[in-house]
């Protein structure tokens, strides 16, 4: 179910960084409205750090707060809105699909503007995962790599050079090539548009390309829990002392997995291993919602392998 994009006031120059995320949110209003909700929450948190005093910034902040409050009320029965755990699983699933599609295109040497856009968008959505707390090691690595790859492929195409597929020095290299937000946004969103086939320089954030079902945003993951979902803190409407709006992860009653948990097969798994196995299962369910059996089988096999051997394939 799609939702119309909110009618927000213009983004002032001092909040130009936020504009990239607002554009991504507009794209996901049609694809996955709950993802758009979390993106705008991240945009609000970022904007509050940059400027909360100017009239232009306050107008945008007020509109974002109104949108977030209304969305929470109208989607109060959606666990991916009311629960940080379910919301994080959904956003990370979208990142996983976008990153996997772009990485596959890159490694098969199909270099074009769509690959640049998808890598870039995956990197921005990794930023959004910060609303749930500290990034996992996997998401942090994907963010570095996606932003670096977007800039690298764009510059190669702009200069008429053939990009090198995959990490520059093998499977373990390239992840350390961290490209700062402004540098990546500038390379992808402001320069050299004609060289990539755009009729005019793309605007910040850019529209996401249409990608196959295996790369598009998946449906809501089936996150089952006997614990009632926690409420997201109410977004204030008065701006003089605007607090930082942030979901409270500690309010989520996450089942405790003891260190050294032993499965029925005799394999000892750490809490992070158990969480990773759960994610694979959630991604498999999400893929089935889109009749993508190949991705579902791949994720289920990874979960089984991890549970049986204690090693992530």
From TrEMBL:
Subcellular location field: Cytoplasm; Endosome membrane
Domain Vta1 C-terminal: 271-307
Topology in the lipid bilayer: Peripheral membrane protein
Biased composition (Acidic residues): 170-181
UniProt KW keywords: Cytoplasm, Endosome, Membrane, Protein transport, Transport
Domain Vta1/callose synthase N-terminal: 18-159
Top-rank taxon, per record: Eukaryota
GO biological process, one term: protein transport
UniProt keyword annotation of Coiled coil present: no
InterPro entries in the record: Vta1-like, Vta1/CALS_N, Vta1/CALS_N_sf, Vta1_C
One cellular component term from this protein's GO annotations in UniProt: multivesicular body
Disordered, as annotated region: 160-252
Record-linked PANTHER family: VACUOLAR PROTEIN SORTING-ASSOCIATED PROTEIN VTA1 HOMOLOG
Family: Belongs to the VTA1 family.
Name of the molecule in the record: Vacuolar protein sorting-associated protein VTA1-like
Origin species: Penaeus vannamei
